[in-house]
């Protein structure tokens, strides 16, 4: 299997083809693939997902993939390194972009193709076409506008995957979903994940929220938070070069020792071993 290594912070490719021109491969960068039209199959880590018409796929570093094109397909591909999103922003915003990529990648492990609500497809397609046009007009060089267009695409993806409700005023049937959205939004803020804080936000007792969440999700609220946090940490370890101290701080650990114990408990390995095993692929 080939590995495509990219050193430029961003690279754009747009083409129409009746046959996928690349072998099965992985890479050192993130990749967003928008299909404007066509029919075929996307093979991601040996999982096969058919597409027909518009489709959108997000690939993480280490993902193995290729397309089997059955009818002529128009592709727009954005290949980018994480630093491209966060290299010129303050630390708080940098953490937010890192977290967003972690969330998208964790979600992508469960669902190969990204699902958008109907009205969002046109917006995302227009943003892809604008980035392609900007790339071509700039003689295949990155610029500030392209950063903002890419961020716009990722924000739309987040909105479709996780929603943007504040979680208040939900019926009992949807309360667990509102709590999940809250956890996803504040996973890096331990104080906002306490039962006291959550019960105050949703105007219900902590015991009732805990009981309802366990009934609906089959797992305790505390355990869900811990497992979700570990998934995000694991993604950061595998797909970034951030120092362990930085990752520990981003997820609210008071010191690296507690961080190491947490990762060992949920991953069966210490953070360095998880990172090294990923680099060995």
UniProtKB/TrEMBL annotation:
SMART domains membership: HTH_ARAC
Gene3D superfamilies listed in its UniProt record: Homeodomain-like, Jelly Rolls
UniProt signal peptide: none
Record flagged with keyword Magnesium: no
Molecular-function annotations in GO: DNA-binding transcription factor activity; sequence-specific DNA binding
Listed Pfam families: AraC_binding (PF02311), HTH_18 (PF12833)
Transmembrane segments: none
UniProt KW keywords: DNA-binding, Transcription, Transcription regulation
This protein's record includes keyword Transcription regulation: yes
The HTH araC/xylS-type domain, residue ranges: 177-277
Domain of life: Bacteria
PANTHER family associated with the record: ARAC-FAMILY TRANSCRIPTIONAL REGULATOR, HTH-TYPE TRANSCRIPTIONAL ACTIVATOR RHAS
Protein name from the UniProt record: AraC-like protein
């Amino acid at each position: 299997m080939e590995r495509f290594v990219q050193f430029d912070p961003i690279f754009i490719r747009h083409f129409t083809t009746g046959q996928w021109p690349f072998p099965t491969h992985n890479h050192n960068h993130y990749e967003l693939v928008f299909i404007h039209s066509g029919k075929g199959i996307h093979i991601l880590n040996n999982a096969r997902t058919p597409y027909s018409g518009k489709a959108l796929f997000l690939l993480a570093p280490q993902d193995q993939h290729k397309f089997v094109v059955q009818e002529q397909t128009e592709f727009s591909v954005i290949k980018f390194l994480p630093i491209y999103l966060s290299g010129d922003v303050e630390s708080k915003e940098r953490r937010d972009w890192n977290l967003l990529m972690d969330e998208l990648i964790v979600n992508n492990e469960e669902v190969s193709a990204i699902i958008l609500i109907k009205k969002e497809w046109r917006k995302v397609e227009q943003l892809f076409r604008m980035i392609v046009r900007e790339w071509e007009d700039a003689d295949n060089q990155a610029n500030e506008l392209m950063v903002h267009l890419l961020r716009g695409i990722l924000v739309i993806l987040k909105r479709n995957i996780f929603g943007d409700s504040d979680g208040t005023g939900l019926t009992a049937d949807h309360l667990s979903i509102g709590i999940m959205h809250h956890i996803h939004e504040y996973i890096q803020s331990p104080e906002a994940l306490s039962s006291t804080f959550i019960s105050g936000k949703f105007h219900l007792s902590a015991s009732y929220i805990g009981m309802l969440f366990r009934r609906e999700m089959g797992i305790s609220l505390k355990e869900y938070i811990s497992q979700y946090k570990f998934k995000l940490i694991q993604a950061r370890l595998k797909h970034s070069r951030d120092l362990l101290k930085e990752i520990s701080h981003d997820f609210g650990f008071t010191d690296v020792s507690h961080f190491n114990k947490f990762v060992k408990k949920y991953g069966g390995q210490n953070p360095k071993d998880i990172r090294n095993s990923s680099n060995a692929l």
